[in-house]
Write a structure and sequence with these properties.
Helix 2 packs parallel to helix 3, helix 2 packs parallel to helix 8 and helix 6 packs parallel to helix 7. Helices cover about 25% and strands about 25% of the residues. The radius of gyration is 22 Å and the shape is elongated. It has 2 domains: about 190 residues, FAD/NAD(P)-binding domain, CATH 3.50.50; about 120 residues, FAD/NAD(P)-binding domain (3-Layer(bba) Sandwich). Strands 1, 2, 5, 6, 8, 9 and 20 form a 7-stranded mixed beta sheet that branches. It has a 5-stranded parallel beta sheet with strand order 11-18-12-13-14. The protein has a 3-stranded antiparallel beta sheet with strand order 15-16-17. It has about 350 residues and is of the alpha/beta class. The chain is built from 9 helices and 21 strands. A hairpin with a 5-residue loop joins strand 16 and strand 17. Bound molecules: NADPH dihydro-nicotinamide-adenine-dinucleotide phosphate (NDP).
Length: about 350
């Protein structure tokens, strides 16, 4: 139902989607399921990385309803199929540009322009890198942020994981199934990860931890040969032999598309009250607005909330098309409180 420049006015109005959802992943797919079941025929621009971060995960053990765990990609496939079953239109394409300054909102998917009365943003977050020249040079040649994707290539070899959160623990445990050994390099002497994950790591005979160490360089010309670390207390340099280095130091929100059009916090996350942003008719859910929980289940739950909020906002008689004013998120919350 997209339109290209030059469509006549009537066609243009008829072609306005009730809801466009930007981003596939637990939040976007759940929003799509709820919006589709409310007969709002949502259009979902999933992005080329459809499925989000769960596509890079193996066992998901904490999503309720799966007592034996479920594979991340399988869970995403189920959510996607469920949204499709109720009439959501899903497109594995990236949004290249948005205009949220007037309604109907304009969203360009590749070069095709789509119009919508409301927009749900669920673009998630992306893995962070250490930003070392050697890391960039060897990316794809042993340097990775995805153990599930790349661990297999280095089986029976030593590997390094950088980070001290749950992601680092998960990567290390996964890699320990195939690596000859795994060294976790962490910049402090205490993990941030949950105790259950830390316990599993501590008990694993193949995993050791290099505390108080930061990566100075990834050593190797065409492939990773070692990870050079500096002890933060003594300044001592050590080369840890490794065929691969997996970076698991957190994520940054994918909000580049919205900069200047929507209120973001100092880390780039979308500011929300509930799921409402500071632009009326634009809602956000999932990791793109979540600085605290960042779980598949919380993303899915906020996707449900965003769809319900959008539905009520559409039903409640949004004002006529035209310019929209972006107000501070708090001010919008007050004016739309139900
Ligand atoms: P976190 O922000 O929790 O942890 C990031 C880790 O990387 C921290 O230990 C941090 O160190 C370290 N770090 C950050 N920047 C750098 C840097 N430049 N150099 C070196 N180290 C750095 O991110 P995660 O991705 O691990 O987890 C995010 C959220 O997702 C958490 O809430 C987590 O619980 C959840 N999660 C849950 C999982 C599960 O339940 N199975 C699996 C994966 C994630 P420091 O501690 O010093 O700040």
């Amino acid at each position: 139902m997209g339109m290209r420049d030059g469509g006549d006015e009537e066609e243009r109005v008829n072609d306005v989607h009730d809801i466009i959802i930007i981003g596939g992943g637990p939040a976007g797919y759940t929003a799509a399921i709820y919006a589709a079941r409310a007969n709002l025929s949502p259009y979902v621009a999933e992005g080329f990385g459809a499925g989000g971060q769960l596509m890079l995960t193996t066992d998901v053990e904490n999503f309720p309803g799966f007592p034996d765990g479920v594979q991340g990609p399988e869970l995403m496939q189920h959510m996607r199929g469920q949204a499709e079953r109720f009439g959501a239109t899903l497109e594995s394409a990236d949004v290249s540009k948005v205009d949220l300054t007037s309604r109907p909102f304009r969203v360009w998917v590749d070069d095709e322009e789509h119009l919508a009365n409301s927009v749900i943003i669920s673009t998630g977050a992306s893995a962070r890198w250490l930003d070392l020249p050697s890391e960039s040079r060897l990316r794809g040649f042993g340097v990775s942020t995805c153990a599930t994707c790349d661990g297999f290539f280095f089986r029976d070899r030593p590997m390094v994981v950088v980070g001290g959160g749950d992601s680092a623990m998960e990567e290390a445990l996964f890699l320990a199934r195939m690596a000859s050994s795994v060294t976790i390099v962490h910049r402090r002497e205490a993990f941030r990860a949950s105790s259950i994950m830390v316990e599993r790591v501590r008990e694993h005979e193949k995993i050791r931890v290099r505390w108080n160490a930061v990566v100075e360089e990834v050593v190797g010309e065409e492939k990773v040969e070692a990870v050079r670390v500096r002890d933060t207390r003594t300044g001592e340099i050590e080369d840890i032999p490794a065929a691969a280095m997996f970076v698991a130091i957190g994520h940054d929100p994918n909000t580049g598309l919205f900069t200047g059009q929507i209120a973001l916090d100092e880390s780039g996350y979308i500011e929300t009250t509930g799921t409402r942003t500071n632009v009326e008719g634009v809602f956000a859910c999932g990791d793109v607005q979540d600085t605290i929980y960042k779980q598949a289940i919380t993303a899915a739950a906020s996707g449900c909330m965003a769809a319900m909020d959008a539905e009520r906002w559409l039903e409640g008689g949004m004002s006529s098309p035209g310019p929209v004013s972006a107000e501070p998120a708090g001010a919008v919350a007050q004016s739309t409180e139900r």
